[in-house]
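Field log, afternoon session.

UNIT: design team B
ACTIVITY: writing a sequence onto a fixed backbone
BACKBONE:
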């Protein structure tokens, strides 16, 4: 019975682990990357759902990117024995100068109980910071 339940999960995970498609030189390319222990996935591009949460491929110019950041917080309790709590946050990034043929990186992480998201250019300069739309425990 466990094997039957495990197979669909493995198929779903293998789809996420596949290679990224080739970058179109007429588009800007944004790779999404979470810090260790943090999950960061693309959710929307200009209010439209994305097919693959690992990247955005978009036309030059202004765009709004939306990503979901998830990380664990200690559960606490009198002895600190409670289960960790997963915090899930939604961030929006607005950037007006995406350029064709450029590869950008969207990184996210946590600092204490707060998450952060930043857009970087190929030289690792911060171009934009994410605006937290909502955040809560799961």
């Amino acid at each position: 019975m466990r094997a039957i339940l495990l197979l669909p999960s493995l198929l779903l995970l293998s789809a996420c682990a596949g290679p990224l498609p080739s970058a179109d030189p007429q588009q800007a390319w944004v790779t999404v990357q979470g810090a260790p222990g943090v999950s960061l996935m693309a959710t929307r591009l200009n209010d439209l759902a994305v097919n693959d949460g690992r990247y955005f491929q978009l036309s030059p110019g202004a765009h709004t990117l939306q990503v979901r950041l998830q990380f664990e917080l200690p559960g606490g309790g009198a002895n600190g024995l409670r289960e960790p709590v997963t915090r899930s946050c939604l961030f929006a990034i607005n950037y007006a100068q995406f350029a064709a043929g450029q590869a950008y990186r969207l990184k996210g992480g946590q600092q204490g109980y707060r998450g952060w998201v930043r857009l970087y250019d190929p030289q690792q300069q911060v171009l934009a910071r994410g605006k937290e739309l909502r955040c809560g425990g799961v």
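LOG NOTE: The chain has a mean pLDDT of 83.
NEXT ACTIVITY: expression trials, pending approval
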